[in-house]
Amino acid sequence: MTFDAIGIAGSGLAAHRTWLDALSDNIANINTATSTDDAAFRQRYVAVQADGDGGGVRVVGAEFGDGEGRLVHEPTHPLADADGYVRYPDIDLGEQMGHLIMAQRGYQASAAVVDRAKATYEAALQIGRR
Questions:
Q1: Fewest C-beta atoms under 10 Å: which of 27, 30, 82, 92?
Q2: Which are the contacts of 15, defined by CB distance < 8 A and separation ≥ 6?
Q3: Contact 48/61 with Cβ under 8 angstroms?
Q4: Is 76 helix (H, G, I), strand (E, B) or coil?
């Protein structure tokens, strides 16, 4: 039972870590400008599903937002087109920060489960030694 808990929590750690990586990528590229001829940075979403073995989750891939982005009038930008527009990703920083907090809390919760399961296992070993 203890090993099941550690395995399930470990899968949660891996999934939340992948989610944190995707979110940090999105936030880091929120101000990445491209010319209007190119697609904007496409924000990444992590796809997760329940593991078929009856416990835990697994990352099944990444999905990407659309490259349409938003046009901003910045005639002095080096990538500006003839009309003075550049393309930025259409990423909402507030939404990304909210997801970042959820991913961090999920990671922390999974880590706490691993710690508690480890302590339980160690206590069981101590009982066996007496």
A1: 82
A2: 46, 48, 57, 58, 59, 106
A3: no
A4: coil
Which of 30, 20, 43, 15 is closest to 99 using CA atoms?
20
CB atoms within 10 A of CB 120: 14
Contact between 79 and 33 (Cβ < 8 Å): yes
Tokens of 16: 């939340």
Q: Per residue of the chain (130 residues), what is the pLDDT tens digit?
A: 556 888 899 999 999 999 999 999 999 999 999 999 999 999 999 999 998 776 889 999 999 999 999 999 999 999 999 999 999 999 999 999 999 999 999 999 999 999 998 888 888 888 877 6
Q: Domain segments of the chain: what residues?
A: 2-129
Contact status, residue 38 vs residue 87, Cβ threshold 8 Å: yes
Other residues' Cβ atoms within 10 Å of the Cβ of residue 46: 20
